[in-house]
Amino acid sequence: MSDAYPPAVDAGAVSAVPVSAVPLSAVPADARFITDEAALRALHHAPMSRATDKVLGALDKHCRAILTASPFCVLATQGPGGADVSPRGDPPGFLRVIDDTNLLLPDRVGNNRFDNYANILANPRVGLLVFVPGMEETLRINGTGRITDDPRLLAASAVQGRAPKIGLLIQVEEAFVHCAKALVRSRLWDPEVRADRSQFASYPQMLRDHVSGLTEEENERQSRIMAQRGLY
After folding, report:
1. Is residue 22 over pLDDT 80?
2. pLDDT tens for residues 157-209?
3. Domain edges within the chain
4. Is 72 in a helix, a strand, or coil?
5. Which secondary-structure segment (H or E) carries 182?
6. What tens digit of pLDDT does each residue of 126-142 get?
7. How do beta strands 102-106 and 167-178 pair?
């Protein structure tokens, strides 16, 4: 028996305020905030055993099935400079199960900011949120990460004949499935509510607005370099 949820609210029924219309001082000076866990929990029902007791210390058959089918996850870290979260994607199964408590997340060609990796070098705690297109439940994994360049660990993650230069070996401490409510509410996989990409500025146009002093010529030059580097 699966959980059943009511239909998500139509996006047209939710009004959005343009970011440009929100002043920087929009938060009231006397706004009230919750500052302790007891006050937070007092506002809600107590969690049921399905929520509190579902956390596993190793990857079981259900976790492995989700990881095998997943082409996308979100990696979260925390370092001295603050938190970071970034998307990671590849063909399904790219989050390789090494054994019951170890995963290998390959690194691919990117912008080389290394925000997450810099955080991990200072604080190895990591969190993963794993998605499978069409599946409204997600898999959450918490643990510790170590950056490796060992070819014995990386060879099996080769794509188009190219193994990654580095990868993140994640030791699983907690693994649990998360209910479907967030994806039901967002209608994330519903093609009827997908945005028309043309209504947004192009990525190069956004960067022109965000990067001070970036000329159109330099923007195009860097775009060509990134295109030449490819995906792998």
Report:
1. no
2. 999 999 999 999 999 999 999 999 999 999 999 999 999 999 999 999 999 99
3. 11-192, 195-232
4. strand
5. helix 181-186
6. 999 999 999 999 999 99
7. antiparallel
Give me the pLDDT at residue 19, please: 54
Phi, psi of 16 (to 5 degrees): -115, 140
Number of other CB atoms surrounding residue 117 within 10 Å: 18
Which residue carries 């060992």 as its tokens? Answer: 150
Contacts of 76 (CB under 8 A, 6+ apart): 83, 84, 85, 126, 127, 128, 129
Residue pair 119/112 in contact (Cβ under 8 Å)? The answer is no
Spatial CB neighbours of 56, under 8 Å, sequence gap ≥ 6: 63, 174, 175, 176
* DSSP bridge pairs for 85: 76
Q: Indicate yes or no: pTM above 0.85.
A: yes
The tokens describing 81, both together, are 């400079």
Q: What is the DSSP pairing of strand 138-148 with strand 96-99?
A: unpaired
CB 66 within 8 A of CB 109: no
Give the tens place of pLDDT for each residue, 89-125.
Answer: 999 999 999 999 999 999 999 999 999 999 999 999 9
Token pair in block for residue 186: 């967002």
Task: Write down the CATH superfamily of domain 11-192.
Answer: Electron Transport, Fmn-binding Protein; Chain A (2.30.110.10)
CA distance 66 to 45: 29
- Structural contact between residues 73 and 95, judged by C-beta atoms closer than 8 angstroms: yes
Q: How confident is the model at residue 5 (pLDDT cuts 50, 70, 90)?
A: low
C-alpha of 164 from chain center: 20
